[in-house]
Amino acid sequence: MSQELLKKAAQSSMKTDVPVFEVGDTVEVSVRIVEGDKERVQIFGGVVIRRSGHGISETFTVRRIVNQQGVERTFPLHSPKVSGVKVLRGGKTRRAKLYFLRDRVGKATRLKQVAGQKKRPAAASEE
After folding, report:
1. How many helices (H) and strands (E) are present in the chain, helices listed first?
2. Beta bridge partners of 35
3. pTM, to two decimals
4. φ and ψ at 42, to 5 degrees?
5. In what order do the strands lie in the sheet with 82-89?
6. Is the pLDDT confidence value at 123 over 50?
7. 3-state secondary structure 61-108
8. How many CB atoms lie within 10 A of CB 49?
9. Among 7, 52, 54, 118, which is 20 to 30 Å from 77 by CA?
10. Are 91 and 47 within 8 A, CB to CB?
11. Quick count: other Cβ atoms within 10 Å of Cβ 26?
């Protein structure tokens, strides 16, 4: 009984317009930042190196290089602070977690682009 109530409460908080993206894809995450009484949207772009969890607690981690320093941020997928995720390009991977990118620098961090990439459902709705 209590599990059913928890599922219903979580279902009402889940987003319905989540784009389809996978580990290895290059994405831009729009995050709402509140500074005092002002609110603005900040974009964090990079490669998705991890997805974990499911349902309301699903998270993904995005990594990028800033001033020769690796920066990783973990975002809850269904958080109201995450206003959108835009997929820029798909990446071909053979792993579920791309932690090996942490040890690489420069051009070695690039992933091969998916050749003949299929139309993704979220990308078709944006056009």
Report:
1. 2, 5
2. 38
3. 0.81
4. -115, 140
5. 69-76, 59-66, 38-52, 26-35, 82-89
6. no
7. EEEEEECCEEEEEEEECCCCCEEEEEEEECECCCCCCCHHHHHCCHHH
8. 21
9. 118
10. yes
11. 20
**Distances in whole angstroms, Cα of residue 14 to Cα of each of 3, 55, 71, 90, 126:** 16, 8, 27, 25, 20
The residue with tokens 């050749």 is: 115
**What would the two tokens of residue 46 be?**
């990079």
Name the phi and psi angles at 2, rounded to 5: -70, -35
| Residue appearing with tokens 């920066």 | 71
Architecture of domain 22-103: Roll (2.30)
